[in-house]
Amino acid sequence: MNTDPPDVAATVARIAAVVGPQGIITDPRDMEPYIVDWRGIYRGVAPAVVRPASTAEVAAVVGLCAETATPVVPQGGNTGMCGASVPHGAGQIVLSLARMNRVLDVDALNNTMAVQAGCVLADVQQAAAAADRLFPLSLGAEGSCQIGGNLSTNAGGVNVLRYGNTRDLVLGLEVVLPDGRVWNGMRSLRKDNTGYDLKQLYIGAEGTLGVITAAVLKLFSRPAATATAWAAVPHPDAALNLLALLRRHCGDRVTAFELISRNCLDLVLRHIPGTRDPLEAIHEWYVLADLADSHSGHALRNELEIALEAALEDALVADAVIAESEAQARALWRMRESIPEAARAEPGMLYRHDVSVAVSRIPAFIREARVALEDLFPGVDVICFGHLGDGNLHYNAFVSGRYRSDATAREAHDVTDLVYDIVQQYRGSFSAEHGIGLAKVDEIRRYKSPVEIELMRTLKQALDPRNIMNPGKVL
Ligand SMILES: Cc1cc2nc3c(=O)[nH]c(=O)nc-3n(C[C@H](O)[C@H](O)[C@H](O)COP(=O)(O)OP(=O)(O)OC[C@H]3O[C@@H](n4cnc5c(N)ncnc54)[C@H](O)[C@@H]3O)c2cc1C
């Protein structure tokens, strides 16, 4: 049944005239990949998916949407975890940036690159590498997520420990505003104190304040050497102390430090072809750590080895392996990055929580939340992994043999409320890196202070008074 407002067809026809036949999809079968989110939880309807080829086209399309009060859902690679990138409500147009995928400029001496928002993250990394530079943002979805989506979710990933979140990797932005005007803030400056830092408003805004069409990104020296270790640790306290020890030995050459529970590894071994347990014995917890340096080869590996030996002596590590080649390092990282996919393949109900607390409080949080969950839900399996170095855990409760259809809404609320209430007691965040989207609209109301919500609403109202940008998401 078509639930679109009556004038939507006319708006779509006017948009089609702007973007041409290459730039619009209206066949429901072809729209399918754009209206369902990556996790397959949120499914919307849309009168059209619009795929503009330039900022001018985005501006013209958004201008038409503003004139006709047609809601716009900006979309990148549609790998987001909170349902923010798919339509929710009648008559919402999906605006995909996929055709705007050009690297505009690489300035190696300034350590910057300018890219269109639809560039796939892996292509951005490759373009930086071709200029002998590093763009450090890296995450499991990098083969399909787009830099515009990374910016709009302030994506984290595995290198936050050393380089920061996406927010820290940006110098300039170009944004199409909700009235169709273009703000060109494509500056390549490391110092610019000329009033409010407007770009930061759009970073992490999940498409609710405007459409990001291009960005100037920071580049870094490319590591000449990297070393990767997979280590078994007896418990999360040991992992935390191992991080401190590694930093004592290797300073800020520690670029990534991931915690993985054994049942995550079991899921990967079960569902991801070509994977194998890196160690012989079974251990409760693992750490995957990366070191990187802009020079030295063997020295880095030796340093890691010495640090791990010290950790073995201190009983922080039970066993460990250091990758002997890039291929081995990639294989170890594949295990970590495949955990979400493996968890999806396991029959059962997974309640996901992307949370953060102060790094030092991670072990206590894991303990407390587990006891509380087991109390509520005897037999629950806690599938816990994440960026321990950033205090960010994917703290998931898994109930085998249970399905979304028979898991009651009450049950879901009980589990998530329990986890987020403990996060709140730890002064943590109920959404460390995935954002709010549709999935956490209730939580933002529950856990943010009225003052904070009011400030956010004031900004939204000022910048998007007709509420056409991704309505229903975040606030
Ligand atoms: C296997 C896997 C691993 C992941 N690992 C991580 C991880 O380690 N860290 C992490 O932070 N995330 C991770 N994610 C989540 C996801 O990949 C990130 O949130 C990513 O940044 C989303 O990018 P995207 O291009 O797919 O955006 P989309 O999903 O298309 O959109 C996300 C949000 O951004 C908005 N948006 C997209 N493009 C624009 C634009 N040009 N202008 C304005 N708004 C826009 C959308 O409206 C939506 O609100 C992972 C996802 C998967 C599937």
Q: Topology, please?
A:
Blueprint: H1 8-19, E1 24-25, H2 28-35, E2 49-50, H3 55-68, E3 72-75, E4 93-96, E5 103-107, E6 112-116, H4 121-130, E7 133-134, H5 147-153, H6 160-163, E8 170-176, E9 182-185, H7 199-202, E10 211-218, E11 220-221, E12 225-233, H8 236-250, E13 254-261, H9 262-271, E14 285-293, H10 298-313, E15 319-322, H11 326-337, H12 339-345, E16 348-351, E17 354-356, H13 362-376, E18 381-387, E19 392-400, H14 409-425, H15 441-447, H16 450-463
Parallel strand pairs: 2-4, 3-4
Antiparallel strand pairs: 1-2, 5-6, 6-10, 7-11, 8-9, 8-10, 12-14, 12-15, 13-14, 13-18, 16-19, 17-19, 18-19
The chain binds flavin-adenine dinucleotide.
Describe the protein in words.
By secondary structure, this protein is of the alpha+beta class. It has helices at 8-19, 28-35, 55-68, 121-130, 147-153, 160-163, 199-202, 236-250, 262-271, 298-313, 326-337, 339-345, 362-376, 409-425, 441-447, 450-463; strands spanning 24-25, 49-50, 72-75, 93-96, 103-107, 112-116, 133-134, 170-176, 182-185, 211-218, 220-221, 225-233, 254-261, 285-293, 319-322, 348-351, 354-356, 381-387, 392-400. It folds into four domains: 8-96, Uridine Diphospho-n-acetylenolpyruvylglucosamine Reductase, domain 2; 103-221, Uridine Diphospho-n-acetylenolpyruvylglucosamine Reductase, domain 3; 225-340, 2-Layer Sandwich (Alpha-Beta Plaits); 347-436 and 443-450, Alpha-Beta Plaits (2-Layer Sandwich), CATH 3.30.70.2740. Helix content is 36%, strand content 21%. The strands form four sheets. Strands 12, 13, 14, 15, 16, 17, 18 and 19 form an eight-stranded antiparallel beta sheet that branches. The mean pLDDT is 94. Bound molecules: flavin-adenine dinucleotide. Flavin-adenine dinucleotide binds next to β3, α5 and β10. Flavin-adenine dinucleotide binds at residues 38, 73-81, 84-85, 97, 117, 139-141, 145-146, 148-150, 152-153, 155-157, 206-207, 211-212, 340, 433-434, 470, 473.
